[in-house]
Amino acid sequence: MARTDAARSWRALLSPGKLLQFPIDQVLILPEGQYPITTDAQLAQAKPFTEAFPALAEKMRKSAGGRQKLENPKVAVSLRLDPEVVARFKADSPGWQTRIKEALRHAAGLS
Hints:
By secondary structure, the chain is an alpha+beta fold. It has 2 domains: 54 residues, no CATH class; 38 residues, no CATH class. Helices cover 38% and strands 11% of the residues. The protein has 5 helices and 2 strands. It has a two-stranded antiparallel sheet. The longest helix is centred in the C-terminal third of the chain and has 12 residues. The N and C termini lie far apart (61 Å).
């Protein structure tokens, strides 16, 4: 593992549910597959991730669920149209799918 963050004064080590912080001069860079042994004193200083980085934890919690649910979500459909119809809507400018939707809403008497 390369030391890419040598300018930082602290190195974080994640363990299940805990965040351990060590001064960078106390961290050994070990070959892949070898892991440092955590002492009881280090474990006593460990904090839950949410306490060590509350803003980051909150941001991660908010984004964990994916996109916000819409009140009236769209329905994906597959629709075959004549090439001339698609070419006509595309020729006007970007937003051709929205214009097709508006034309369909008008034809269905919804607008």
